[in-house]
């Protein structure tokens, strides 16, 4: 079929999607995250400063988009699933290794990470308590009250500012502005400014459930009680104990809730996080907009073969003489040249930081590799639980997927079609023409318009349930 005639969505299969392999490791029990394990660290905690300060959004003072931006800090969940470990060495940043030494070092690090994860899956985790921090951007309408709260979760290796061109597109119409009161955009604990806040404390592996627990901790204990117009302090205080208990009992669905349930937008790693979070406490959410999420059919051999994505991350350059030097290097790569130019500008501005006389990645190669290695645990758990229909059918679900002719996360025949119909109730999908997996980076304007269409459907339903 000519590409121009391929429909920009996946039609529902005529037969039920086939189930996962019959393996004990895939017999997930209980909730993905038990709410009893979600709680913040005890007060008081020393309060760190913002690593990168406050900034203006890319639309600046354009009155046509009347939303302000502030950046905030909250504690992550105190309970952590994984113990501290000695992380493997990665290639030296000063270039002292030979090409062959770098290759051996990268392969050794990948093998070590896979061995550690296999050990955890076989022997069980050794949880601990640790105080970590999360950094979030808040975009809020300047004047009138009312409307949805959206939450955006980034892909692995990216940062909260990567969403701004998508958000700008979403908020470019008066109709969308009337529907959206505020937007929160986070960085996972080992990414971006969150990683800088947690420097010296990230010597663990990470599971998608760990990030889901952090998101639950924010929504239950720190998301302000009302999406009001008043400025918020940099360090967001906890909600009252009675409000936290009400959220634990009934989320944002109860008649006395001052908020509508959340619409979560998650890309790749962020899509898997959002899905497991919504399965763990569905009454917090109205809808999920999943941007090619890492929710894939289980691969029992995942930890026994090298991970090309982890190998690529481990070999990534992480330091430059200047931001301009970094930009020049990025533009030599087809990977970066495929991005919307605004995304690359934001990457140079916000994904890098000044470390004395050197510019470095905020998200280190080892942390990016750790998340890629987790794809053998978090991705299949989300797939299996969706197939078992564990996502509440009340939650509206939309998948945004790569366009025709682009590579797919799972190259098996019909695998992507099956993914988007794992939970067929209250579900739809769209293919973003001209984009591969990095939809938020390659086609942010189109993505923003699709999110706008989605929330136009979501808000009336959210109102009807209150």
What layout of secondary structure does this protein have?
Blueprint: E1 67-75, E2 79-80, H1 99-123, E3 128-129, E4 133-141, E5 148-153, H2 164-170, H3 174-179, E6 180-187, H4 192-197, H5 208-221, H6 241-250, E7 262-267, H7 269-280, E8 285-291, H8 308-314, E9 319-320, H9 323-330, H10 334-337, H11 341-350, E10 352-355, E11 358-361, H12 365-373, H13 378-387, E12 396-402, H14 415-420, E13 427-432, H15 439-442, H16 444-464
Parallel strand pairs: 5-6, 5-7, 7-8, 8-12, 12-13
Antiparallel strand pairs: 1-4, 2-3, 4-6, 9-11, 10-11
Helix pairs in contact: 2-16, 5-7, 7-13, 8-12, 9-11
- The whole-angstrom Rg is 21 Å
Can you count the beta strands?
13
Number of helical runs? 16
User: What is the average of the pLDDT values?
Assistant: 94
**Total discrete domains:** 1
- CATH topology (level 3) name: Rossmann fold
The fourth-level CATH homologous superfamily is: Alpha/Beta hydrolase fold, catalytic domain
Helix content: 25-40%
Walk across the major sheet and give the strand order.
1-4-6-5-7-8-12-13
In whole angstroms, how far apart are the ends? Answer: 46 Å
- How would you classify the helix and strand content by structural class? alpha/beta
Query: Mind telling me the CATH class?
Result: Alpha Beta
The geometry reads as: globular
Please summarize the sheet with the most strands: 8 strands, mixed
Description:
- The protein is of the alpha/beta class.
- The chain has one domain: Alpha/Beta hydrolase fold, catalytic domain (Rossmann fold, 3-Layer(aba) Sandwich).
- Helix content is 34%, strand content 15%.
- It has helices spanning 99-123, 164-170, 174-179, 192-197, 208-221, 241-250, 269-280, 308-314, 323-330, 334-337, 341-350, 365-373, 378-387, 415-420, 439-442, 444-464; strands spanning 67-75, 79-80, 128-129, 133-141, 148-153, 180-187, 262-267, 285-291, 319-320, 352-355, 358-361, 396-402, 427-432.
- The protein has an eight-stranded mixed beta sheet, sandwiched between helices. Strands 9-11-10 form a three-stranded antiparallel beta sheet.
- Helix 2 crosses helix 16, helix 5 crosses helix 7 and helix 7 (269-280) packs across helix 13.
- Residues 1-5 have low confidence and may be disordered.
- It holds the Pfam family Abhydrolase_6.
């Amino acid at each position: 079929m000519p590409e121009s005639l391929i429909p920009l969505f996946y039609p529902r299969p005529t037969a039920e999607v086939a189930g996962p392999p019959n393996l004990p490791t895939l017999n997930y029990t209980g909730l993905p995250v038990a709410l009893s394990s979600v709680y913040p660290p005890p007060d008081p905690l020393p309060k760190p400063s913002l690593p990168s300060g406050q900034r203006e959004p890319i639309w600046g003072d354009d009155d046509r988009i009347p939303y302000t931006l502030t950046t905030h800090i909250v504690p992550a969940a105190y309970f952590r699933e994984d113990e501290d470990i000695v992380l493997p060495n990665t290639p030296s940043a000063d270039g002292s290794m030979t090409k062959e030494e770098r290759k051996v070092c990268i392969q050794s690090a990948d093998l070590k990470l896979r061995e550690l994860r296999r050990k955890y899956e076989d022997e069980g985790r050794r949880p601990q308590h640790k105080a970590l921090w999360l950094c979030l951007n808040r975009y809020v309408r300047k004047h009138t009250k009312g409307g949805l709260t959206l939450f955006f979760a980034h892909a692995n290796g990216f940062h909260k500012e990567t969403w701004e061109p998508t958000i700008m597109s979403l908020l470019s119409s008066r109709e969308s502005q009337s529907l959206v009161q505020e937007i929160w955009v986070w960085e996972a604990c080992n990414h971006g400014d969150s990683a800088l806040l947690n420097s010296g404390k990230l010597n663990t592996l990470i599971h998608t459930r760990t990030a889901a627990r952090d998101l639950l901790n924010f929504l239950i204990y720190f998301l302000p009680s009302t999406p009001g117009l008043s400025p918020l302090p940099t360090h967001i205080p906890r909600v009252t104990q009675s409000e936290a208990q009400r959220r634990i009992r009934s989320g944002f669905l109860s008649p006395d809730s001052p908020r509508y349930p959340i619409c979560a937008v998650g890309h790749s790693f962020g899509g898997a996080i959002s899905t497991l979070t919504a399965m763990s406490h569905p009454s917090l959410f109205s809808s999920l907009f999943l941007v090619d999420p890492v929710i894939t059919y289980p691969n029992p051999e995942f930890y026994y073969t090298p991970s090309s994505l982890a190998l690529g991350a481990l070999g990534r350059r992480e330091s430059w003489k200047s931001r301009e030097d970094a930009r020049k290097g990025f533009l030599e790569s087809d990977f970066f040249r495929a991005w919307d130019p605004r995304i690359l500008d934001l990457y140079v501005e916000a994904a890098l930081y000044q470390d004395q006389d050197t510019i470095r990645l905020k998200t280190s190669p080892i942390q990016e590799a750790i998340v890629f290695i987790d794809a053998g645990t978090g991705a299949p758990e989300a797939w299996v639980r969706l197939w078992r229909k564990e996502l509440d059918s009340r939650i509206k679900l939309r998948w945004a997927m790569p366009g025709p002719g682009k590579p797919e996360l799972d190259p098996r025949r019909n695998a992507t079609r099956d993914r988007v119909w794992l939970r067929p109730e209250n579900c739809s999908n769209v293919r973003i023409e001209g984009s591969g997996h990095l939809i938020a980076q390659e086609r942010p304007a189109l993505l923003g318009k699709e999110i706008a269409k989605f929330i136009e459907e979501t808000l009336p339903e959210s109102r009807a349930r209150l």
